[in-house]
Q: What sequence folds into this?
């Protein structure tokens, strides 16, 4: 639509592996971040086509599908 845009967020991470370029619907990530009270989040990625698993501690997991592109 007319309001479609893009954004890039850069932050320090501990990561091993090759580069993965992946896009998510920002409303889903905002919903997740607002629901947690934590300063560290682990993100499990396989590739840009598979869902990502955002984990906080041992008891909270949030699955997010990437945008096609």
A:
């Amino acid at each position: 639509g007319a309001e479609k845009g893009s954004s890039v967020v850069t932050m320090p991470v501990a990561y091993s592996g090759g580069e993965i370029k992946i896009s998510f619907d920002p409303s889903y990530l905002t919903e997740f971040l607002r629901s947690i009270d934590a300063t560290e989040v682990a993100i499990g990625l396989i590739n840009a086509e598979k869902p990502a698993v955002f984990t906080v501690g041992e008891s909270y997991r949030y699955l997010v599908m990437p945008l096609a592109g």
About this structure: The chain has a mean pLDDT of 85. The two ends are 16 Å apart (CA to CA).
